[in-house]
Amino acid sequence: MNEYQEKLKKKMNEYTHFIYKITKDFPKSELFGTISQFRRAGISIILNYIEGYARRKPLVRLNFLEISYGSLKESTYLFAFSLEEKFIDKDQHDYGVKLSDEIGAMLWRELEYLEKYKK
């Protein structure tokens, strides 16, 4: 991985840990609902990114990065849902969405780069 990719991975790691931190305070009734789904989506972002870079073929890597991006979008929705349900406060929401937007922009750049291999 190059410096850009390491920076992105670091942001993903921060994001995942943030999700785990805030979901510790969710209602216990959400253990098998929002908590589980939020954590699964959060960890999926970085795990698929890492697995993608363990693959040699650009199109296979592209597939893993697309899954990572999809999980990011899922987790972004869960920030909005969690705010509306009052599981998190506005500051937590805004911080999570800000990180998500940064990760999304960086990941999208990588996806566009890999798209050239589809042609």
Walk me through what this model shows.
The chain is mostly helical. It has one domain (3-118): Up-down Bundle (de novo design (two linked rop proteins)). The protein has four helices and no strands. The longest helix is centred in the middle third of the chain and has 27 residues, at 58-84. It starts with a helix and ends with a helix.
- Helix/strand/pairing class, anyone? mainly alpha
Q: Assign the CATH topology.
A: de novo design (two linked rop proteins)
Approximate strand percentage: under 5%
Proportion of helical residues: over 70%
Characterize the biggest β-sheet: none
Looking at this structure, what is the CATH superfamily?
23S rRNA-intervening sequence
Distance linking N and C termini: 24 Å
Shape: elongated
**Number of individual domains:** 1
Low-confidence stretches: none
Please tell me how large the radius of gyration is: 15 Å
The residue-averaged pLDDT reads 95
CATH architecture: Up-down Bundle
Contiguous helical run count: 4
Could you state the order of secondary-structure elements as H and E?
HHHH
CATH class: Mainly Alpha
List how many beta strands DSSP finds.
Answer: 0
Characteristic terms for this protein:
119 residues, 0% strand, mainly alpha, de novo design (two linked rop proteins)
Please provide a brief summary of the model.
With 119 residues, this protein is mainly alpha-helical.
